[in-house]
Amino acid sequence: MNFRSQIDTRWREAQSLLCVGLDPDPNRLPMHLRQQPEAVLRFCVEIVDATADLACAFKPQIAYFHAARAEDQLEALIAHIHTRHPGVPVILDAKRGDIGATAEQYAREAFERYRADALTVNPYMGFDSIAPYLAYPDRGLIVLCRTSNPGGSDLQNLELANGRRLYEHVAELVAGPWNLHGQNALVVGATFPEELARVRQIVGDLPLLVPGIGAQGGDIDATLRAGATCAGGLMINSSRAILYASDGEDFAEAARRVASATRTAIQLSRQACA
Amino acid sequence: MNFRSQIDTRWREAQSLLCVGLDPDPNRLPMHLRQQPEAVLRFCVEIVDATADLACAFKPQIAYFHAARAEDQLEALIAHIHTRHPGVPVILDAKRGDIGATAEQYAREAFERYRADALTVNPYMGFDSIAPYLAYPDRGLIVLCRTSNPGGSDLQNLELANGRRLYEHVAELVAGPWNLHGQNALVVGATFPEELARVRQIVGDLPLLVPGIGAQGGDIDATLRAGATCAGGLMINSSRAILYASDGEDFAEAARRVASATRTAIQLSRQACA
């Protein structure tokens, strides 16, 4: 099953738009795990097992694994998700941005070594930085478009000579000529709902990965009004609020409570669809 | 010694603008190494030892190491360069592009785990994707600006409402308000010399990392006229032409011959400086 079908299925069957982000910060792991071998893997596996039925996807952030020399634990984590929670897609958040032979190596890493279902990528180098991943026609490519950090406006919100904004141009490319296999998606932050609505207008029913709920202050109601579709349309990411709900031995149950409350809050905010 | 001083010193003392790129493609390694353990490390160490006196810098491309599960070999390679060839800076080519806590992890990875002297980064997420690296004030940040691939124009060459091109805007930011420690540099391709000249005009004597010589077809003469300064100004990268000059047991000598010829060709093309 390709990435798009996986997400559509999760939206429908799990009734969830919640993407659980896996950002294992070594300084915030539960105290009883910190000194143990493979602490990162143990932590993430317990989080995954406690939240899988509530999630439309999991999104491990590769920077944490790279910094901790934990690439083997990331491989084991994704293998665990595929085995124990089949059908829940894994989005590898690596924001790769390179071309040609180098991008081919990044594609091998993401899709063969880690067996991710989708990868986040950066559009700055243009279509050449997308093309090598299209050799894996069933995998998702989630392209940075409009991010919710203050500096996001330094480039993304620049007005072009044709009157459009740079992020609108990216949205058009990713949903149009770059979407050769129908597996593309976009990263669009939650803190500017009017821009999220503009992206939705441009891209039809393309899935949007939305960081910035919770810790980053985005508003669920406004996000859903701006970006949801009848089928779902959004993968609303929450990482820290779920992962670090408790630093005690009850961390997995605490994570489940927060994930469940977030998923429910999202469902209650969704508009009825005709 | 900080990155900028290292490069200035290499330009002067080694009389070289040649950056040797380390892109160890498993399918192109010398035949006698392919089945050996740590083949990637052995290959790169021999290349490094054969070319260090001819190089202003080394640039390992991390994608090859990630795809080959060879992160430990990359650590060992960079440690080898620091020990055996002190003063030759290592540019980790990872084109990282993320913000906040995630970028802090990428900085830990590049500067603590791998002990790189400089890192390539992507500007699409704005200053927030630069700021976390500034916690390491002696390390270089080499920001993507104008790349030489055909798709580079999809975003970088867009005309802005103020008449400037997007890559010119990036050059201004990186050389100006983002250059807090004077350690910034830019990636600018060799295939559009008039744009390289335009970037040089904007950024003063900022170092420019120039891919696209050799395999990618850039012209050395035009590149130097457009971008060199009296001190040097350019880190002209060559990877495949050097690495794969021979796939026999003489690969390191062959690499040295090509590196030496490239360095000499660059020196002969440099204009006399008043």
Written description of the protein model:
The structure is a homodimer of 274-residue chains. Chain A contains ten helices and eight strands. Chain A has helices spanning 3-13, 39-51, 62-67, 71-84, 100-113, 166-175, 193-203, 220-227, 240-243, 251-269; strands at 18-22, 57-60, 91-96, 118-121, 140-146, 184-188, 208-210, 234-238. In chain A, strands 2-1-8-7-6-5-4-3 form an eight-stranded parallel β-sheet. In chain A, helix 5 links the parallel strand 3 and strand 4 (118-121). The model of chain A has no long low-confidence stretch (mean pLDDT 96). The interface between A and B is large, with 52 and 52 residues.
Brief rundown of the structure:
2 copies of one chain form a homodimer. With 274 residues, chain A is of the alpha/beta class. Chain A has 10 helices and 8 strands.
Topology diagram in text:
Two copies of one chain form a homodimer.
Chain A: H1 3-13, E1 18-22, H2 39-51, E2 57-60, H3 62-67, H4 71-84, E3 91-96, H5 100-113, E4 118-121, E5 140-146, H6 166-175, E6 184-188, H7 193-203, E7 208-210, H8 220-227, E8 234-238, H9 240-243, H10 251-269
Helix content of chain A: 40-55%
Indicate the CATH topology of chain A.
TIM Barrel
According to CATH, what is the class of chain A? Alpha Beta
Number of domains as seen in the coordinates of chain A: 1
Largest interface: A-B, 52 and 52 residues
Strand neighbour order, sheet with most strands of chain A: 2-1-8-7-6-5-4-3
Number of strands of chain A: 8
Overall mean pLDDT score of chain A? 96
Sheet-strand content of chain A, in percent, reads 5-15%
